[in-house]
Predict the 3D structure of the following.
Amino acid sequence: MTTSEIAITRTSAADAVGLSSLLGIRNVAKQFGKNVVLRDISLDVAEGEFLTILGESGSGKTTLLRIIAGFETASAGEVWMGEERLDRQPPYRRRVNTVFQHYALFPHLTVEQNVAYGLRVAKRPEAEIASRVSEALEKVKMSAHAKSKPSKISGGQQQRIALARALVNRPRLLLLDEPLSALDANLRRQMQVELKSLQREVGISFIFVTHDQEEAMVMSDRIALLRSGELEQVATPREIYGRPATAYAAQFIGHTNLLKGEARAGVVRCGLLTWAAALPDGPALFSLRPENIRLAPEDSTAGRVRVRGKVRHQAFHGATELIRVECGDGMVLVVRTPGSGGAVSDVELEFSPADAVLVRESPERI
Amino acid sequence: MFSRAYKAAVTLPPLLWVTVFLLAPYLLMFCYSFWSVSASQTIVHSWNLANYGQLLRVDVYWQTLLRSMWIAARVTVFSLVLGYPLAYFLSFYAGRKKDLLYQLVIIPLWVSYLVRAYAWKTILGSDGVLNTLLQYVHLTKHPLEFLLYSPFAVVLTLTHIYTPFAFLPIYAALEHIPRNLVEASHDLGATPGQTFWKVILPLSIPGVVAGATFAFVLSLGDFLAPLLLGGPSGIMISNIVVSLFGAAYNWPLGAAISFCMLLLVVTLLVLSERLEKKWSFS
């Protein structure tokens, strides 16, 4: 991705949120010895925004978060908060707080003392500390456990305390490093909703790191997709799902069919499929979501691409069904339908050319 | 899971060992402490508390015991003062040199105790390295006499010898502190100094207690350093026990003193165990 393209993505996304920028990451790079972890990352976080940094393990997402928090120094680039150069400040001077992956609660302090920690070191008056701590504990519904030691409460409860301990300091920006990864699936879903509504309530910008694309989709205002240390796409969940910029983005977020084709004189040819598209001549790659392909009804709709195929595999998922269809010439399309009504063998498929989204190749990176 | 024969075969040898070489001698010592010595230098097996009474009545015994505790207390404080910063530096700031420095701390433990004690003798004596140097640079005109054959020499030597014992448990405790707690503290606005006092020190207390116990108990029972470097003013309780069991041939009194020390040490170990438990959170 070139710098100008990032700039375009950034501006449009910031406009979409419609708020002023709080955090500016400018051309940040990081390497450990010869191992390049991040290269040329530029990203803005708006006031009150919920931004998710999404990526596989090893993509550099945690390193980026640690650079913002101040636990790592960037090898190049700058981090700004408003007019303030953040990356030259030690972590304890940044108005940024973190919710750690394994909570990192102080085991020798009670829940209450954990939450009060930031205010105590800032030497706030005791009366103010007491009222802010009890308010924070109430907000995360943990007032009953104020006197407990962290080892005596459950993982989900520790999670809430970690959140309260960070928020009680009224940071301008909250960083969350895979905070839900240690919770079981049900609690996780519940916490996703709670976290999102809490974020709306307090109005603080959140940067949330996760490898779970579903979590990212559910919670975020915008998703920054990171791959091998580079930003693949920064966009709203709807945009990144509906208009993925790259083959990687299309595959990482949801299922997709990648179609390799050739454009010539305004016509795209992908195996047996052809449709009209105003593209420059040359090879082209398309992403076509399974739910955008339909089992074709008898009466054909004008302007749709149709193809016949043999069903190779059928998987029932409850609300929908995934069908793998071989369309000849080695092309296999995955189709998501509301229900085929039983086993089928020969089908006719159709989709609208508008749903075939042109994406860039994602070359392998080391 | 395991057969009874196997369990017996595994547990019996250590049990026997402890009984024969530890419990039985202690029991024997305990018995001895109630007996006495006749004028003809034979042990009289009559039970009485005379030895314990003598321990309280004769000044030299309880004074020496108190002095030993005072020496051991100073050794403990100095070992902690030296060992803690070293352990802290190694654990948090040594980076890649950590293993090397750790070995350097350990290596002196492989050198014979006697060699190290004698080394201090050559440094502290009237013709020793230190006095020669002080006179050479004209800081003093005459050799400083208090350097050797004094409680000072004993405290110095014992501190040198037992600092690694204080260092090791502190280092282990510091290594066990999850680093994300330190990050969390910085993240919440605590300076490195505040982080040390509020997070690192409290979480290393079990190591400090263990290290202090090592230094105190080991130096309390030490008899070589006072023998070699203590002189008359630096005598410790073990030296008295040694002479009672040896030249003085008063095993019963020696046994009574030994038993009192044993009681003291066991009490300390129980207390330190409790303290360690109270301050460990995992």
In short: Chain B has a mean pLDDT of 91.
